[in-house]
Amino acid sequence: MSEPLLQIEDLAVRFRTDEGAVRAVDGVSLSVERGEVVAVVGESGSGKSVTGMTLMGLTRGPNAEISGSARLDGRELLTMSNRELRAVRGNDIAMVFQDPMSSLNPVYRVGDQIVEQIRTHQQLSRQQAMARAVELMERVGVPRAAERLRSYPHEFSGGMRQRVMIAMALSCSPKLLIADEPTTALDVTIQAQILEELRQLRSETNAGIILVTHDLAVVADIADRVVVMYSGRVVEQGTLDELFYDPQHPYTWGLLGSITRVDSDRSARLPAIDGMPPSLLAPPPGCHFQPRCPHAFERCGEVPELSPRTPDSPGHLDRCWLEVERKRTLRLVDGQIGLAAPVRA
Amino acid sequence: MARFVIRRLITMVLMLIVISFVTFLLFIVALPGGNPAALIAGRLATPAEVHLISVRYGFDKPIWVQYVRTMANLFDGSAYSYQEGFNVMGAITRGAPATLSLSIGAGVFWLLSSIGLGTLAAVRSGRYTDRVLTVLSMVGVSMPPFLLGAVLIYYVSYKAGVLPINGYISFTVSPWQWFRHLIGPWITLSVLFIGFYSRVLRGSILDAQGEDYVRTARAKGLSERRVLVRHILRMSLLPIISLWGLDIAQVIGGGAILTESVWGLHGIGQLAFNAIGAFDTVTLLAIVLLTAICVVVMSALVDILYAVLDPRIRLG
C-alpha cells in the first residue's frame, strides 16, 4: 500500500505558560487518504484545532514545543524551515477557519485577497489571477462573481464570506484542505450548502479533507472516517459506520448520546456528559476520561494504547480497557447508545 | 464617499463657530484682568478716559456685536494688540515660516521614527530589543522639551559646536543653514512624541497579531514581511495617524511654545509665550483660534483618511 496523503504520527504540542506546560496535543496519530474526508471530533479544548493549525505551522512560536511527525506526500512538515513551509501553506495545504466574519481582512476587497494568495504561489499576472478568482467564486456558488470580487468583506453575509474563504482555500488546488469548524458560525441551511461545496470539491479534485467539528450531524453527513479526540488524545477512530454503530470508547458513547432527537421526551433532562474536561496543565494519570467515566475500574489508571480491539475490524482503534463484549452491553442506555448516568455515592 | 466628506466639512465649520465664540467669551468678555478698556487706558487713566476708550472700541455694545466685529478684525488683518500695538495678523504671518518649518519637519521625523521603533519593538516583543526600547520611550516621554533643549544647546551647540545655538534662518536665504538651525528644535520637539507613539503602535500591532485575518494571511503562505506590512500595519497605523493629525495641528497652531522659546525660533509658539507674559488677549485669541482651525481641519482630514483606509467607516 502506498503512503497516505497525510500521515501524522505521535504528534505532541505543548505550550509553555506561566502556570506550566499545557499539553494541547498529546500523541496524536492519524492518516488521511486522497479524496477522503476525515472528521476530527471532540469538545472545545480537546486539541482538534491545534492539530490542524500545527500542520500549517501556525502554532510555531517561542513558547511551543512540537514533537512527532507529520508527512504530507512523504515530506515532513514539522521540521520544515519557515521558508519551505510558506510554500506549502495555502498551496499544498489550505485552511478554512471557523469564523468567516473575522477571518477576512476588512480593509481589502475580497478579490484582492484571493488574488494575493494565487500570486504568492503561482506566476500569474493580476488579470489572470483575477480571472481565476472569478472562476473560483462561481464554483463555490457566489452569484455575480466578477462584480462581487470588488466588494469588501463587510458587504457579504456570513455564508457568502465562508464561500469566499473556501474559494480562497481552493485557489491553488490544495492536496489537503483543513476545515476548522467551517459551518459552526452559520445557519443550518447555509451549513448544508457549504458541506455540499466540500463534498463536490472532494470528488472534483480528489483532495483529502480534514474536517474539524463538534457537530455529529455534520460528521454523519460528509465524513468517511472519524477521529474522536479527548483532552489532547485520540480516544477512538474508525469508519463512519464503525463509530456510529459500534462505538468502543465511553466518551464516544457520551457524544452520541448527547444528540437530542425530535422524538425524545421533552420533559426529560438533556443528556450530557457529567463533569468537566480535565485541565491540560495537569491531566489525570492513565485514561484522561477516567474521572468522568461511570464504567472506570482499576486498570484505567494505566494509559490504554490506541489499538484495534474489535476482532473483526482492524482499522477501528480505541483507547479503552473494557472488554469489547462488555462495552456492547454497557453502552446501551434505554435501548440507545449513550453514557450511563454516573453512580452517585 | 462624497456625502461623507461633505457632511464632515459642514460639521467642521459649525465646530469652528462654536469654538471661536467660546474662546471669545473667555478671553475678551470674561477677561481675567477685568475691563479691556481699562487695560488699554493704562493704570493712570481717569474713569472718563476709560469710558471714552470703551465707546471707541465698542466694548459697550452687545456681546454678539463685539464678537462679530472682533472676528472681522482678526480675519481682515486689522486687529491690533492692545498692549504692544502691533498688528496681530502681521505678527502671526512673520512667525509662520519658522513654526511651519519646525512642525512639518519634526512631524515627519517623529512619525517615521515612531513607526520604525514601534514596529521593531512589536516584532521583538518580550526580547532584549523590546525592553531597551521600552526604557528609552519612557525616558523620552518623561523628558520635558525645555530640559532636552537646554541639554542639547549646552552640549551639542555650545560645547561641541556641532549645531547653531539658536535662531531661525529662512529656507530662501540658505537651505543648508535653515536645515542646520532646525535639527536641534526638531529633535527637541520629537522625542516626547516618538516615545509615546512608538508605545501606542507597539500595542496596536501586538493586538492585531491575534486577529483572525492575520492568521488567515499566514495560512495563505504570505511572507512574514508581507503579513506585517499589508495585513497588520495597515490597521495598526490608524490610531497613530489620528494622534499625529491632532498633534501636528496643535504644533502648527503655535503649540510648540517650549521648543520654540528654548531655541529662539521666533515662531507662533514664541509669540504665544510672549503674549501670555504680557497679558495680550487679542494676540492670544488669534493664536487659540489658529490652533483650533488647524486642529479641526486636521481632524476632518484624519477622518476622511480613515474612511479611505477602512472601507467599513464609509457606511456610517
Radius of gyration of chain B: 24 Å
Low-confidence stretches of chain A: none
Major sheet details of chain A: 8 strands, mixed
Please count the helical segments of chain B: 13
If you had to describe this structure to a student in words, what would you say it looks like?
- The complex is a heterodimer of chains A (345) and B (316).
- Chain A is of the alpha/beta class.
- Helix content of chain A is 31%, strand content 22%.
- Chain A has helices at 48-55, 82-88, 100-103, 110-121, 126-139, 145-148, 158-170, 188-205, 216-222, 240-245, 250-257, 324-330, and strands at 6-17, 20-32, 37-41, 64-72, 75-76, 93-96, 176-180, 208-213, 225-230, 233-239, 307-308, 317-318, 332-333, 336-337.
- In chain A, β11 and β12 (317-318) form a beta hairpin.
- In chain A, α4 crosses α5, α5 crosses α7 (158-170) and α7 (158-170) packs parallel to α8.
- The termini of chain A are far apart.
- The mean pLDDT of chain A is 88.
- The mean pLDDT of chain B is 89.
- Chain B has 316 residues and is mainly α.
- The relative contact order of chain B is 0.14.
- Chain B contains 13 helices and no strands.
- Chain B is globular and about 85 Å long.
- Chains A and B meet through α2 and α4 of A and α9 and α10 of B.
